[in-house]
Hints:
Layout: E1 2-7, H1 12-24, E2 27-33, H2 38-48, E3 52-55, H3 58-67, E4 74-77, H4 78-86, E5 93-96, H5 104-112, E6 116-119, H6 122-139, E7 143-145, H7 148-156, E8 165-172, H8 190-193, H9 203-211, H10 213-225, E9 233-237, E10 243-249, E11 254-258, H11 264-272, H12 286-289, H13 303-314, H14 318-334, H15 342-353, H16 362-379
Parallel strand pairs: 1-2, 1-5, 2-3, 3-4, 5-6, 6-7, 8-9
Antiparallel strand pairs: 8-10, 10-11
Helix pairs in contact: 2-3, 4-5, 5-6, 6-10, 6-14, 9-14, 10-13, 13-14, 13-15, 14-15, 14-16
Nicotinamide-adenine-dinucleotide (NAD) is lined by residues 8-14, 33-37, 56, 82, 97-99, 120-123, 147, 199, 201-202, 204-205, 263.
Amino acid sequence: MKKLSLLGSTGSIGTQTLDVIRRNKDIKVVALAAGSRVKELAEQIREFQPELACIGSEELAKELKILVGDLNVKIVYGSEGLIEAAVIESADIVLTAVVGMMGIIPTIEAVKAHKDIALANKETLVTAGHIIMRMVKEYGVNLYPVDSEHSAIFQSLNGENPRELEKILLTASGGPFRGRTRDELANVTLEDALRHPNWSMGKKITIDSSTMVNKGLEVMEAQWLFNVPVSKVMVVIQPQSIIHSMVQFVDGGIMAQLGSPDMRLPIQYALYYPERRFLESERVDFYRLGQITFQEPDFETFKGLKLAYDAAKKGGNIPTALNAANEYAVSSFLDKKIKYLDIADMIEYAMNEVEYIAEPSIDKILETEQSVYELLKKKW
Length: 380
Ligand code: NAD
Ligand code: MG
């Protein structure tokens, strides 16, 4: 039986992962980690009986211990605890579904502990892709994409020669503000931005989808996962979210992966690769769907997407500057402290102001994160 450690178990990806496991019944969950939802985590512990569970803080760990006092589970907490969950001896595979750069260290430690990785946490590759991809090779572990677009690319490349790849066509729904001008976005509210047309996801990625920074992060994620320069990653708007991405080969042939928007497919594919399992989900009905349409992205309105291409081309710690500024800005926007268009402006400012480092170590990546926070705190 495959043994899984799940980081971020109470989130959107985390709960859908547990749903896949519940339906298949042949993966053993050995560790669960969550940030703050103690009651939900306690219920998950009761259902899946892991050896270890991690929660965000010491206080929450005390609460959790009371809730599951009758069960045989070790409770740990904080960033140390998260690492303990990531390297737990019994796990074969770690699914990382925490949100943000906090995923870097646990992912690296899991690779060092020879775990396969199913990666949802894209911010980790955006900021530390140059280190993680090297380590994945060095330790001989597998890294499976969970992000739907990257899973689609991975599926489309199955059995193909990567050297014959000409281009990645990364699809995007365009989010709730597709077709708007920059001026029209000046006064959008948090509630408007949280209304994604096709996907139900965590708050941070929902905002990222509305600004298209999510697509920018995914361009960089694709660059690392599939070892291509960003000049070979092209974003195509496909508002129905039926085509999850495509690859074009040197003979002009294109392979795509299609399906209803349901994250459980890429999650399940990553957990069981190369096997395909039955998944009870909505099937695409092409007669009813009628059409699938395509558009070019609007780089002016969605400046964050353009900045992501710039960051990828500059390389070094600039993708970290973009990502850290975005994490800071989105969190401020969620707290209703800044306006919507400030998000991209803050990213641009951080990318221009931060000191450039060509090949940042993990320490330098984390230092860059802190200096970006300082820069933004002073200015906004
Ligand atoms: P979410 O906010 O719904 O869930 C985040 C999870 O991380 C929660 O379980 C939370 O408790 C946990 N967490 C937060 N702080 C923690 C801490 N200190 N220690 C341990 N756990 C902690 O986010 P999500 O939408 O599930 O996204 C997770 C990641 O997957 C993100 O990187 C996102 O970009 C990526 N992703 C999500 C989707 C999606 O459909 N939701 C799709 C593709 C990629
Ligand atoms: Mg995606």
